[in-house]
Specification:
The structure is a single chain. The protein contains 13 helices and 8 strands. An 8-stranded parallel β-barrel has the order 1-2-3-4-5-6-7-8, surrounded by 7 helices. About 45% of the residues are buried. Helix 8 runs parallel beside helix 9. It is an alpha/beta fold and about 300 residues long.
């Protein structure tokens, strides 16, 4: 087994924006501090939830550098550096390592896609270029690509390929993944509604959106699982299921940015093509947050 990057709950942190669309680093710093102070076990910067796909190269790298400096080794920083252009992913991954990222989150190529052979070549090229761990990101709903189990077994032979963020939503696939690769790759749930199911099968934690609004409870849910107290973990999973679902009532990160704004944190707007939530969905999200005492 390779060294584990983290156990528990990592946050796939949003990127706060000013009204003009520029990045609000003051709020980002406060959010990082708040998360760590409330038990979050790792910071994932510039992921899907962080709107990395709309950032310039300079912004992307500056966000990673800022997160590394603000976190100050209190928890690991995992930088999103995936791309559908292998050469660009290699370049960005090397730059993220140079500014101090502890690990990389690397999504499957999207739009152009590839074959499973191409996936092996793509991820291997990135892993060969750096000296820090890679978390592969399987999210076929966004990329149109699924990493086959046989492909993961082959990739697991690489010393730097250490984990998988599993967000297919397919519990049968996840069970097979853990059964066949769990001794070679750590698995993290990429879906907040499957934290307890995946951890009951052996996953090491979650890369979470839910942690934005209830970091302590999300951390505790994973801690209960790690302590084999699945009864208490399941209570939390069920208690907050409506909130989890409503944080994805529209395309992520639209709802979670709205939720953070409702809680009084100036997260600002999303960048186009993401837009404001519908008033109908805002009301549903607001009611769920009121139910759990997050807003009045």
């Amino acid at each position: 087994m390779k060294n584990t990057i983290f156990t528990g709950a990592a946050i796939a942190i949003i990127t706060p924006m000013n009204a003009d669309g520029s990045i609000n680093y003051d709020v980002l710093g406060s959010m990082i501090d708040y998360q760590i102070e409330n038990g979050t076990d790792a910071i994932v910067i510039c992921g899907t939830t962080g709107e990395a796909s709309t950032m310039t190269d300079a912004e992307h790298l500056e966000c990673i550098r800022f997160a590394v400096e603000r976190t100050a080794k209190r928890v690991p920083v995992i930088a999103g550096t995936g791309s559908n252009d292998t050469a660009y992913a290699v370049k960005l991954s090397k730059e993220a390592e140079a500014v101090g990222a502890d690990a990389l989150l690397v999504v499957t190529p999207y739009y152009n896609k590839t074959t499973q052979k191409g996936l092996i070549a793509h991820f291997t090229a990135i892993a060969d270029a750096v000296n820090i761990p890679l978390v592969l990101y399987n999210i076929p709903g966004r990329t149109g690509m699924n990493i086959e189990i046989a492909t993961l077994k082959e990739l697991a032979k690489h010393k730097n390929i250490c984990a998988v963020k599993e967000a297919s939503g397919n519990i049968s696939y996840a069970a097979k993944l853990i059964a066949e690769c769990g001794d070679m790759l750590d698995v993290y749930s990429g879906n907040d509604d499957m934290i307890v199911p995946l951890m009951s099968l052996g996953a090491k934690g979650v890369i979470s959106v839910l942690s934005h609004v209830i970091p302590k409870e999300t951390h505790m849910m994973t801690r209960f699982c790690l302590d084999n107290n699945f009864s208490e973990a399941a209570k939390l999973q069920i208690k907050y299921l409506d909130l989890i679902n409503n944080l994805f009532i529209e395309v992520n990160p639209i709802p979670v940015k709205e939720a953070v704004n409702l809680m009084g944190v100036n997260a600002g707007p999303c960048r186009l093509p993401l837009c404001d939530m519908s008033e109908e969905h805002k009301a549903v999200l607001r009611a769920s947050m009121e139910k759990h005492g997050l807003i009045k």
